[in-house]
Amino acid sequence: MQTPDTVEVVTGETPLGSVIWLHGLGADGHDFEAIVPELRLPENLSLRFVFPHAPVQPVTINGGMAMRSWYDISSFDAEGRADRDGLLQSSAVLEDLISRETDRGIAAEKIVVAGFSQGGAVAIHTALHTRHNIAGLMALSTYMALPDDAENATRHTDLPIFMAHGSFDPVLRLEWARASADKLIEAGYTVEWHKYPMAHAVCPQEIADISIWLSKVYA
């Protein structure tokens, strides 16, 4: 899989860090672009937000329709909700994007990987296995797609993790996300967990909490 095209938003002249944020199934890199100004980050916190476009490929759960997708989904049960090979390929792409940011002068310790829904599953796997000492993981309305990820992680457990989910999510059940958070905690990670009264979406309180978390990560 080739390194994808990206949408970029920079909040200041000289960014001190980068947030690489993957969209969900069927969306594209513009999906969270408008959220950046809503974060209302401190003026002295200049960040580069990188929103990559997933490739267009058939998705089994949607009748084989071609759409932007980080991996195939054959069903919404534990066995079929993620094609392992496809997820690993997208994780390698995210790893390349991390390396690209370091080549652009951003230290790995100043790079956050983030994702919503399907993109969040890729972000979780990558954060747990990357060779880079990244700044943090932001996993929104998502789940740990590969069940052995927490046990087999190579990343140190000091990784800051922000996880959030909607209590009325009809697409990815809340218990999937909570079970993923619990597995990470059992493996020694510290997870900042948030639950909001929303569906499969992002809400204003979540955006405010993300802003606070990013400010702590880059403090």
How does this structure look, described?
The model has no long low-confidence stretch (mean pLDDT 93). Helix content is 29%, strand content 22%. Helix 2 crosses helix 3. It has one domain: Rossmann fold (3-Layer(aba) Sandwich), CATH 3.40.50. Helix 3 links the parallel strand 6 and strand 7. The N and C termini lie far apart (35 Å). It is built from 5 helices and 9 strands, in the order ββαβββαβαββαβα. The strands form 2 sheets. Strands 1-3-2-6-7-8-9 form a 7-stranded mixed β-sheet, with helices on both faces. Strands 4-5 form a two-stranded antiparallel sheet. The chain is α/β, with parallel strands linked by helices and 219 residues long.
